[in-house]
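Sequence and structure are no longer studied apart. To make this concrete, we show below a single chain and its fold as tokens.
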Amino acid sequence: MSFPKEFLWGGATAANQYEGGWQEDGKGINTSDTLTNGSHTVARRVTWKNPTTGETGSTPMMFMSGDKFIPEGAIPAVLDDEYYPSHIATDFYHHYKEDIALMAEMGFKTFRMSMNWARIFPNGDDETPNEAGLKFYDDVFDECKKYGIEPLVTLSHYETPIGLTIKYGGWKNRKCIDFFEKYATTVIKRYVGKVKYYLTFNEINVMSWMPYMAGGIIDFSDQAKAQGAHNQFVASAKVVKFTHENYPEIKAGQMLAYQPTYTYTCDPADQILALEREQQTIWYSDVQTGGHYPEYKLKEYERKGIKLEDTPEDYELLRNYSADFLSFSCYGSSTVTTHEVKDNVGGNFVMGVPNPYLKTNAWGWATDPACLRLACNTLYYRYNKPIWIVENGIGWQDKLEADHTIHDDYRIDYLRQNIQSMDDAINKDGVNLMGYTMWGCIDLVSAGTGEMRKRYGFVYVDRDDEGKGSLARYKKDSFYWYKKVIATQGEDLD
């Protein structure tokens, strides 16, 4: 079996983890610029300042934390005595030609990247865009075009301009709908003929777990998260409406963080828990891709006393301008139980209990050879729209040898299993899978931990957790393996 000729092989990055270019050429500050580094055992921190008292400090970035995220009266801020990995990251800003050439050498058909909103509108609510920022992405897209690489552009990937947080409270404020629409339409018009595929929001359901990352919201109440999600749904629908009416050749998709959920036992209570966990994620795609709020979510809002600031036009937009396709990240599966189990394990922001049938890496992530097939079937047959796997990969502490080689057989083994899972979804199950972009194709900063040692790429970047290193690029063994996979349309996985 092989993959369709039109299948889009490639890799994925995010500006806040990869681009760098901190405040160069007029770039403003975004939410990720206030995040320090951390580790598997030490949380990243959001730094802040009280503009009235002058007090400064930091708050651990804890997922699913309570209502109060930073002290009353404080605002997120960049402090002089802290290290922020995003400020340089792995410096795509100055290495884009080299990096895109490496992608082309592997045979990439597509490159998923994000545009840094604050590079285009530094404060988020600016009257006019920053021309230097627009020009940078012109250059990037021209370089992609030179090699026949189709960009897949995420408009908002944990990169809300900090000005929108400070002045408006972030995405819980409906004014952000208009600011985003202005930003999105500006760039879509600018890059007609250069960019065909857009994603409006990265992992939109992270709003439930970490609204600061997802939408620049420092109010962690259920009301604020619900409103933030709703406002992003409406903004996304407006982007789809704009492309349909003006540039029908351009497709705007949803991006969801997804993983299959297993039960630890056959206890019916575990089955119900798995159902409820699934609903916590899938309702986001029910709205953004399916075009309506599911009744179970409305019932939850009723129980919690959540009342959305909305309009009848919102629901018209959601119904008529749902996402053109559904993309998702999937790094593995989670296992849940109502029973007492000794340990919890981590995943892509979601916790679970250890699955005895799966192997885990040093960060506690389990490798599940069936997860992509299961995810593809669940999402494709729920919405009957094309799907796209835009994040999948494995973080590992790669070793750079004296001769500048990196032997990452563990990454090859992981990808081999996942690509076979995709093959089954396409050729056994009939899923319309558009493409696959392996996460972190060039080494980048980990979003969850802020580390460099947790490496994902096919290309090693000489940079460490403290920001030291030459930024030189070195090809890993997986680089040559993935090149072969693409050249054979997924037939040769040896």
Q: What stands out?
A: The radius of gyration is 21 Å. The chain has one domain: 8-40+88-487.
